[in-house]
Design a protein that fits this description.
Mean pLDDT is about 85; it is low at about 40-45, about 50 and about 265-270. The strands form two sheets. The protein has a six-stranded parallel sheet. It has a two-stranded parallel sheet with strand order 7-8. The protein folds into two domains: about 5-270, Alpha-Beta Barrel (TIM Barrel), CATH 3.20.20; about 320-400, DNA polymerase, domain 1 (Orthogonal Bundle), CATH 1.10.150. It has 16 helices and eight strands. It is elongated. It is of the alpha/beta class and about 400 residues long. The chain has helices spanning about 5-15, 90-100, 120-135, 150-160, 175-180, 185-205, 205-210, 235-245, 275-290, 295, 310-320, 335, 345-355, 360-365, 370-375, 395-400; strands spanning about 60, 105-110, 140-145, 165, 220-225, 250-255, 325, 380. α8 (about 235-245) links the parallel β5 (about 220-225) and β6 (about 250-255). The two termini are about 40 Å apart. α2 packs parallel to α3, α3 packs parallel to α4 (about 150-160) and α8 (about 235-245) crosses α9 (about 275-290).
């Protein structure tokens, strides 16, 4: 008996939760004021957050959870005993438009299992994006998870209609991919990512841009599953740094592996906490925007793992106490960015403010800085931490206080 659209939507939206993406940023401004429907700005993409912190702002579905691959970490692998469902391209288009008209969503995140072969699957996804853009003049955000084994021509066509394309790197190491996803080939994944980068770079050339409409304006990203193999955080972050450098990615998404039904025979591993995923995002941020090297971030522990109890910047500061306290009225921008509790905007405000006066802790309070967190690490007008930085219990002092959970 054929399942209803509602039943299939329940299956395929739930299956899509394993695809990590919480960004609708970075694309061009479009709205329906001059015709069409949807927008990427203004009322724009409505961001909602799941209890585990993941952003679920778009209509996020799989075209199908049928798959010819048997990746050991994937709930939708061919040998998995899960309920299967499939949408036609026309049904995905209809759902997107109807959800938009009801003001539920402002865009589409579409992924899929591999059906028949890579090219067939990719062609179906391109058809959906093309129909939304050309036939229905849909101006909302579209993010497609592309199939790395698909032809370059199909991926290029997808880039004409999608705001962002993702090609999953899958696991942190080639050995991990070969062990747990033997039907996927790391060399082919990197080749596809490289070809997409070249096309994005070519489309951004001023002379080329005049002759062709926007090509993947929000760039490409990738997803990395963590915890399915034994890669350390240092290895994971090192792989991410190489990906950022080689393919100009907008984002690497980390997805904590969760054991799936009947997977024990494939992956007899312990589920990593979601906190590890959170710490990796924080470390990734330090690398991209705060000037930290991967080696610095992961040097605190000999096993290359991040401290789950405290954030990576605080962990680094506690391991490098000789670099503190920092005088907020004299230190350079690079060192100020390394102070726990200081963000990029705070540091910029400090640099601007100290040009006119000597700053004290009250000035930091006005910048919405947690003075308690920064006190051991800074000197300021009328404030010297004395030997606070040398206290043996400083780590315990800086840790967040336990909270009583409500029973009801």
């Amino acid at each position: 008996m054929k399942k209803s659209i509602k039943e299939r939507l329940a299956i395929l939206s739930d299956a899509a939760k394993y695809d990590a993406s919480c960004a609708s940023s970075g694309t061009t401004k479009r709205d329906s004021s001059t015709g069409g429907i949807g927008s990427t700005e203004g009322s724009g993409i409505c961001h909602a957050y799941a209890p585990d912190g993941r952003c679920i702002s778009l209509l996020k579905i799989l075209m199908t959870n049928f798959c010819i691959y048997d990746c050991a970490y994937c709930i939708n692998r061919s040998s998995s005993n899960v309920e299967r469902a499939r949408f036609t391209p026309e049904e995905v288009v209809w759902l997107t438009l109807e959800f938009y008209r009801r003001n539920y969503i402002e865009g589409l995140f579409l992924s899929s299992g591999i059906i028949r072969n890579s090219d067939y699957t990719m062609e179906q996804m391109v058809r959906i994006a093309r129909d939304l853009r050309v036939t229905h003049v849909f101006r909302g955000y579209i993010h497609l998870k592309t199939i790395p084994e698909a032809s370059a021509a199909l991926i290029e066509e997808a880039g004409l209609y999608a705001d962002r394309l993702s090609i999953n790197i899958e696991l942190p190491t080639d050995a991990g991919v070969e062990a747990f996803a033997p039907q996927k080939h790391p060399a082919n994944i990197r080749r596809s990512m490289g070809e997409l980068k070249d096309q994005i770079d070519a489309a951004s050339e001023p002379t080329f841009r005049k002759r062709r409409k926007a090509f993947v304006p929000a760039g490409q990203s990738t997803q990395m599953i963590i915890g399915a193999d034994q890669a350390s955080d240092a290895t994971i972050l090192g792989t991410s740094a190489n990906l950022y450098g080689s393919y100009a990615l907008r984002r690497v998404y980390y997805s904590a592996f969760s054991p799936i039904p009947d997977a024990s025979k494939h992956l007899p591993l312990i589920k990593p906490p979601l906190m590890r995923e959170h710490r990796l995002y924080q470390a990734d941020w330090l690398y991209r925007f705060y000037g930290f090297g991967i080696g610095e971030i992961t040097a605190a522990r000999p096993d290359g793992m991040l401290d789950l109890a405290i954030d990576p910047k605080l962990s680094w500061a506690l391991a490098n106490r000789d670099r503190f306290p920092v005088d907020i009225n004299k230190a350079d921008r690079e060192m100020l960015l390394r102070v726990p509790g200081f963000g990029v905007k705070t540091v910029d405000a400090i640099l601007a403010g100290r040009a006119h006066k000597r700053l004290g802790l009250d000035d930091l309070k006005r910048l919405k800085v947690s003075v308690k967190k920064v006190q051991p690490f800074v000197t300021a007008h009328a404030w010297t931490p004395v030997k606070l930085i040398d206290r043996s219990d400083l780590r315990e002092m800086m840790m967040p206080k336990p909270q009583q959970l409500e029973l009801l």
